[in-house]
């Protein structure tokens, strides 16, 4: 099985890569700006490094041969998502996991809501919602991850998953938890299909997130 990670040089992309190399025998195509230099320390024979921008769909398409699933490690608006969906359809890749943010569906509630919306605005009226609508209207086996504020804490993979239509109250989650959840989606340990999922840490319903 081969996985392509778009935006692989980001923190969570690196964590997902490490997880997949440790926990699976999958082959990986790691794509992003200057990844051949930024990820040069990865010398595993199962890894292919490809330089390129998200808008460079020709390069992405050329490297989708034998790819079974794609993870987009970047919160993208519709101008990136629309052409990406087109090439995934053209080459026949069906499994697509993308990062996004909460409040795509006005689902942020509780004490977190006022603080979040003051900083983020009306996400449900933004191009991020348009991008999510495009994914949901596609024929892909997709998972949209609505990820809240991130922090690092080694070993903390605690995550609370909410489905579309359910209230979202958690103010933060670790990058380690998100990376492991993405890994579990790619390996089938987390069995979600054609869903928009909210990822937060249980018990972090704060008026304002605390950072570590």
Separate helix tally: 7
In round numbers, the mean pLDDT is: 95
In oligomeric terms, what are we looking at?
Answer: single chain
Q: Order of strands side by side in the largest beta sheet?
A: 3-2-1-4-5-6-10-8
Proportion of β residues?
15-25%
Rg calculated over all Cα atoms: 17 Å
Low-confidence stretches: none
Largest sheet: 8 strands, mixed
Based on secondary structure, the structural category is alpha/beta
What percentage of residues falls in helices of 4 or more residues? 25-40%
Shape: globular
Give a count of the beta strands, DSSP E runs of length 2 or more: 10
N-to-C CA distance: 36 Å
**Order of helical and strand elements:** EHEHEHEHEHHEEEEHE
What does this structure look like?
It is a single chain. This protein is α/β, with parallel strands linked by helices. It has helices at 11-23, 35-38, 57-62, 78-91, 112-120, 127-137, 175-187, and strands at 2-6, 27-32, 47-51, 69-72, 95-100, 141-147, 149-151, 160-163, 172-174, 195-200.
Short description:
The chain is α/β, with parallel strands linked by helices. It has helices spanning 11-23, 35-38, 57-62, 78-91, 112-120, 127-137, 175-187; strands at 2-6, 27-32, 47-51, 69-72, 95-100, 141-147, 149-151, 160-163, 172-174, 195-200.
Please outline the helices and strands.
Blueprint: E1 2-6, H1 11-23, E2 27-32, H2 35-38, E3 47-51, H3 57-62, E4 69-72, H4 78-91, E5 95-100, H5 112-120, H6 127-137, E6 141-147, E7 149-151, E8 160-163, E9 172-174, H7 175-187, E10 195-200
Parallel strand pairs: 1-2, 1-4, 2-3, 4-5, 5-6, 6-10, 7-9
Antiparallel strand pairs: 8-10
């Amino acid at each position: 099985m081969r996985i392509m990670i778009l935006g692989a040089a980001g923190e969570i992309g690196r964590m997902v890569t490490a997880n997949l190399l440790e926990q699976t025998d999958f082959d990986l195509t790691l794509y992003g700006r200057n990844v051949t230099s930024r990820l040069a320390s990865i010398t595993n024979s199962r890894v292919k490094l490809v330089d390129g921008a998200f808008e460079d769909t020709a390069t992405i398409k050329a490297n989708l041969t034998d790819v079974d699933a794609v993870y987009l490690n970047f919160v993208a608006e519709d101008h990136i998502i629309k052409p990406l969906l087109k090439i995934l359809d053209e080459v026949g890749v069906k499994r697509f996991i993308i990062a996004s943010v909460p409040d795509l569906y006005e689902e942020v509630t509780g004490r977190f809501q006022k603080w979040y919306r003051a900083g983020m605005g009306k996400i449900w009226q933004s191009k991020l919602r348009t991008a999510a609508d495009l994914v949901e209207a596609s024929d892909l086996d997709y998972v949209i991850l609505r990820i809240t504020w991130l922090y690092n804490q080694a070993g903390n993979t605690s995550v609370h998953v909410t489905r579309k239509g359910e209230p979202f109250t958690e103010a933060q989650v670790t990058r380690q938890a998100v990376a492991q959840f993405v890994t579990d989606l790619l390996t089938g340990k987390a069995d979600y299909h054609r869903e928009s999922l909210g990822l937060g840490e249980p018990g972090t319903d704060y008026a304002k997130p605390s950072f570590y």
